[in-house]
């Protein structure tokens, strides 16, 4: 089958919809053409293509993609078709389903998002599923992990870079008193500081903690907490300091060892492509002395590999 060559940015959403429809015709779809179009369109363009496709063919494009594709390519492309907040809502909803419960994934997404991103995806969550995100967290999570997630999704946080150093030192002292200084851990203090403070402030707290007590906050979290509560605190801290490094580490973990964790690989690449992928690629290269593209290339195959590499862009 000959592949349709589509200029990445020159065709209109209507043209794209028609090219896609043509790619679906005949025996087996022209997957290269589908990837060539959709991997090079941003969220707004993808929404317009879906609108045009429905208008032209009275058919839902994601549904058609689902019937034409399979496996990891289908999973990745269908996730890509959403806009970022709708996608986050869908990932978290699936992770909080009773039959598919995956608290690690729900925690990873919630605790790596900014306060404003969470507010928007909460609206999508309610609009799409008719239930508040807090309700599902209440049902599925437990203990301090639940308390932290509920506080994190409902507390607005300052997103600027200004920091009150005195307050940061005060928080560092409070965390030391709540953790390493006492027998047992006062989780309430950790929840309050981690859920109420800005990313820049938490970075300053970590620096103050290190200056005052000779060790980093991450080590204190590791020593004083465990399970999903520890995972949530570490994610918040790492994303406040360097989100790109955090996601580079998740990608490395997904591809390390025997076999690949494709759901994690897809989730991170698809959700970060339109946010901070160039920084993640730079961090990956710095940390692991190999480009992210090369790592993905050696861990995946076929059209699935082609699609992920198209999202990653140039190999650098």
TrEMBL record:
A single cellular component GO annotation: cytoplasm
A molecular function GO annotation: phosphatidylserine binding
InterPro entries: Annexin, Annexin_repeat, Annexin_repeat_CS, Annexin_sf
Domain of life: Eukaryota
A family per Pfam: Annexin
Database matches in Gene3D superfamilies: Annexin
GO biological process: response to cold; response to heat; response to salt stress; response to water deprivation
Keywords, comma-separated and alphabetical: Annexin, Calcium, Calcium/phospholipid-binding, Metal-binding, Repeat
UniProt xrefs under PANTHER family: ANNEXIN, ANNEXIN B11
Family statement drawn from the similarity comment of this UniProt entry: Belongs to the annexin family.
Free-text comment about domains: A pair of annexin repeats may form one binding site for calcium and phospholipid.
Record's protein name: Annexin
Organism: Salix udensis
């Amino acid at each position: 089958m000959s592949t349709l060559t589509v200029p990445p940015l020159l065709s209109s959403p209507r043209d794209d919809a028609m090219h896609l429809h043509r790619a679906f015709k005949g025996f087996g779809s022209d997957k290269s053409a589908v990837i060539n179009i959709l991997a090079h369109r941003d969220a707004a363009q993808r929404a317009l293509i879906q609108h045009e496709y429905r208008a032209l063919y009275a058919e839902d494009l994601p549904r058609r993609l689902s019937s034409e594709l399979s496996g990891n390519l289908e999973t990745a492309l269908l996730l890509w078709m959403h806009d970022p907040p709708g996608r986050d809502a869908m990932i978290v909803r699936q992770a909080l389903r009773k039959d598919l419960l995956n608290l690690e994934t729900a925690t990873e997404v919630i605790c790596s998002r900014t306060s404003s991103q969470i507010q928007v995806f909460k609206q999508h969550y309610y609009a799409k599923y008719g239930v508040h995100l807090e309700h599902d967290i209440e049902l599925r999570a437990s203990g301090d992990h639940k308390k932290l997630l509920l506080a994190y999704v409902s507390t607005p946080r300052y997103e600027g870079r200004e920091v009150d150093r005195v307050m940061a030192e005060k928080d560092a002292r409070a965390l030391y008193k709540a953790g390493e200084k006492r027998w047992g851990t006062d989780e309430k203090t950790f929840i309050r500081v981690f859920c109420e403070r800005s990313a820049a402030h938490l970075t300053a707290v970590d620096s103050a903690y290190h200056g005052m007590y000779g060790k980093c906050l991450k080590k204190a979290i590791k020593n004083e907490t465990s399970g999903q509560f520890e995972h949530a605190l570490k994610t918040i801290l790492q994303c406040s300091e360097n989100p790109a490094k955090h996601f580079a580490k998740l990608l490395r973990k997904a591809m390390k060892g025997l076999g690949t964790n494709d759901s994690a690989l897809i989730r991170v690449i698809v959700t970060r492509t339109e946010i901070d992928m160039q920084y993640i690629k730079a961090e990956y290269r710095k940390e692991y002395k190999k480009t992210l593209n090369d790592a993905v290339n050696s861990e995946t195959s076929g059209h699935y590999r082609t699609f992920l590499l198209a999202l990653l862009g140039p190999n650098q």
